[in-house]
Amino acid sequence: MNAEDFLKNLKQSSSPKVSKTLDAIYQICLEQEKRKIYDFSAATIARLGYNRGVPKAQSINNKTGQVYRELLSFFSSQYAEKKSVIYPKGDDDWIEEINSPKLKLLVRMQAAELAAAKKKLAEFIPPSARIAVSDYQNVILDEDAKFTNLERRALEYIVSDDFLNKWGFSISEYGEIVDASGTVVLRAATSDAVRKALNFL
């Protein structure tokens, strides 16, 4: 059974209000999947969906929130073996020393976004390009690495109001480009990566 079918089964025996809340939780869980962040805890889902119809973690964890916990448990079970890749490893292992679970989660999310931005920038800048730093300004010595006017205009359009309004998109707090329903169209840090590339190239 996939997640959508599981959701439908839960909604069959739920009130319209609970069904609406289940839909909100389901959408947040889908966004976590797309970010490859397999954290479906009540605290995390409640924080991410606090203004989108998701109840507080305390409400999810109490007796009346059992149906919500079942949905979260379903998502968690699907990715139980993948939790080792939730966050970047290696240089970021020091984050595990943070005592506060909430702070640790926030720092891990920031580290994941930074890794995504670096990966995106690497796609724009060829490995052979040399970057010299002088007076806090990046100077690319390889002329082939610079954008042409046409390439620059194309990238500028991706983060422009004209493009976003045309398709009903917006930019989330994570730098994602999302549609009107909140579904991620372009992954976390995309808008930040594009702007950085435009600044440096």
Describe the structure concisely for a colleague.
With 201 residues, the protein is mainly α. The protein has 2 domains: 3-81; 116-200, no CATH class.
Question: Could you explain how this protein is built, in words?
Answer:
With 201 residues, the chain is mainly alpha-helical. It has two domains: 3-81; 116-200, no CATH class. 53% of the residues lie in helices and 7% in strands. The protein contains nine helices and five strands. The longest helix is centred in the middle third of the chain and has 24 residues, at 101-124. The radius of gyration is 20 Å and the shape is globular.
Write the layout of secondary structure elements.
Layout: H1 3-12, H2 16-35, H3 42-48, H4 57-61, H5 66-78, H6 101-124, E1 131-134, E2 137-140, H7 149-158, H8 161-167, E3 170-171, E4 177-178, E5 184-186, H9 190-200
Antiparallel strand pairs: 1-2, 3-4, 4-5
Helix pairs in contact: 1-2, 1-5, 2-5, 6-9, 7-9
InterPro entries: GmtX-like (IPR048061)
**What is the mean pLDDT?**
80
The helix tally amounts to 9
Helices and strands, in order, run as HHHHHHEEHHEEEH
Large-scale geometry: globular
Which segments are poorly predicted (pLDDT under 50) over 5 or more consecutive residues? 84-89, 136-141
How much of the residues is beta strand, in percent? 5-15%
Instruction: Please give the share of residues in helix.
Output: 40-55%
As an assembly, this protein is single chain
Strand order of the largest sheet: 3-4-5
Q: Rounded to an integer, what's the Rg over CA atoms?
A: 20 Å
Largest sheet: 3 strands, antiparallel
DSSP E strands, number? 5
Structural class: mainly alpha
Terminal residue distance? 47 Å
InterPro entries: GmtX-like (IPR048061)
